[in-house]
Amino acid sequence: MIGVAQRMLKRRALAEEAVQDAFVLIWRHAARFDPQRGAGLTWIYAILRNRSLSILRDEKRTETSDAPIGEETASEEDDPETVMSKLSDAKALHACMETLPPQRRGLVLLAFVQGLTHGEIAGKLALPIGTVKSWIRRSLISLKECLG
Length: 148
Description:
The chain is an all-alpha fold. It contains eight helices and no strands. Helices cover 66% and strands 0% of the residues.
């Protein structure tokens, strides 16, 4: 099941999330399974497929490739400034990122380079989720203006 989800989502962490969610849904809705309508395995994989598609749609993850942004891959252990230094072929973006205050730049990098959700960032940095959301939004508006 991990393999199927990973082929759809292109990222191991998202695939694991989809499989976990699928098992929860299977457990909760086991009474709905009707063997007259098809095989159990087909039903299970349909749930996994639908959950994977929901994750793609809900998270609005348009870039699900594991390909690195720069020459080196950013790891989860890297701090935002280290990740920033690994952006090699995006000079305009790099220059615009430098105009952001360090804390806001870090939030953008955590969200878009490391793929953390707003909630994960808020928990990691001990900030209110509303603050994280508004700072990321304002930072993206600033970046759009700078790049435009």
